[in-house]
Amino acid sequence: MNKIYLDYSATTPMDKRVAQAMLPYFCDKFGNASSIHNFGQTAMAGVDKAREQAAKFLNCEPDEIVFTSGATESNNLAITGVIKALLRQDFGGQASKQQRIKNPHIITSSIEHPAILEPCKKLEKEGVEVTYLPVKSNGVVDIEKFKKAIKKNTALVSVMHVNNEVGSIQPIREIGKTIKKINEKKLKDWKKLNPKERGEKPQPIYFHTDATQSVNYLNCDVRWNYVDMLSMSGHKIQGPKGVGVLYVKTDVPIEPLQLGGHQENGVRSGTYNVPAIVGIGKAIELIENRKAKKQGKKKAGAAKSVEANNLKIAKLRNMLVDGIIKNIPNVVLNTDRKNAVPSHANFSFLGVEGESILISLDLEGVAVSTGSACASGKLEASHVLLAMGIKQEIAHSSIRFSLGKYTTEAEIKKVIKILPPIIKKLRRMSPEL
Amino acid sequence: MQYSKQVLKHFKNPHNQGNIKNADAIGQAGNLKCGDVMKIYLKIKDNKIKDIKFETLGCAAAIAVSSATTDMIKGKTIDEAKKLTKEKIIKKLGGLPPVKVHCSMLALEALHEAIKKYKS
Questions:
Q1: What ipTM is given for this predicted complex?
Q2: B100 → chain A, closest CA residue
Q3: Which CATH architecture fits B5-119?
Q4: How far apart are CA A266 and CA A259, in angstroms?
Q5: Model pLDDT for residues A81-136, shown as the tens digit of each residue
Q6: Do A289 and A360 belong together in one domain?
Q7: Is A60 a catalytic residue?
């Protein structure tokens, strides 16, 4: 039985060229990259190269790249690290009494990954104020609601680039621009004050985005997007598991979460995971090359978001969506194709529970997921679908198809063929309600 | 989380699936909001469960539990049926992932509901 993988949002198969790049760093170039001797420096050369590959892709400086164990750590570090640093600095510094803010305020969205939501909830318990932005019915944050949520003490905004469950693209560039304007105005007003009375510079708002799901498809240029921090993961981009990147702009204060070494300028201690770091660098480079090649050098900057790979995957995704809608009655497409990456198609099959569809498909060799793989240990309906205003019973019947680099037309055709009888059989088992 | 072979077997080809038109008792448990709904139909004669059918909207475990439970009840007396425990069902299925244990509760709930209705 030929297995079909439609769960690229959970993880991706590694590109063989990535594996090739990693291989020498297991047995031959095994040195500890922090060692001064030749063995160490040979390993460090691999880390340095990866750092440059990541920096080029994100359009930042190499020393603004922090290698982590994955996007979960990157997200935790961005949220908790910045807030702890601000609290430790006596948030607001020596600012005048009017400007001094005791409690930092975080704005995030209600559809973030748990790796953002849970650190936020933990900080909330410690007294930090958090606003969870609602989303529109298409799973996109409303920029106007974001603007209204900004407060005097807002210190950190974290909104994901692309949602992992439905694929909706968030307006991060608009959010970034808005924040930039606010920060500039704050600074301008401060400059007008009497130098003797104005105290320290006002506290800017920092903007973080979790770009785990967007790197394959969208422009992640941090300057173009006006972001101060960006998380990404290796294994979602045909790279290795257990490695991620956190871009941290030079002037963003961040406190480490783990101590005990000096790596990554003290922001992230721990022996360099050299093979994985080399691997994520290579995986990033392959995406960069693909985008540059298709666009031509002229457009390689801001407009590299739409390219041939996206079009190919979008075509297959549309084929899947159209095929399902045509062949199965009573389905709801939860992915708004106009505002989503080309990889995602999240469906609700009314009157059937999502997991039983997943298991049925798995028995036929097709891998999909319900909501997010991380939620598979839980029984609650997807928080993302609920935030989109979808009813519990409809959310329970959802299945996420996520396509990727190696998805073929034949695979999509096969899925369209085997899915209708599965849904029919499961619906027949359900009681009339 | 992994399902046992028995769970998958019951899920793939559930036993006693369907409904009974002139059932002597019907029991239902669960609700759409939590994602699982089970309905059990009983045909009872001389205090014995002559026939039993189920309809389930739920996860693979819920369907497998429904199938195994109806297997275990068919032909038993009402008193025997009432003695069925979730532990016995889980054992019969070769184990259930801990988060799925509540499914076995629902099957029993539906069964007890049906028996209660029959008696009243």
A1: 0.94
A2: A379
A3: Alpha-Beta Complex (3.90)
A4: 8
A5: 999 998 887 544 444 344 445 789 999 999 999 999 999 999 999 999 999 999 99
A6: no
A7: no
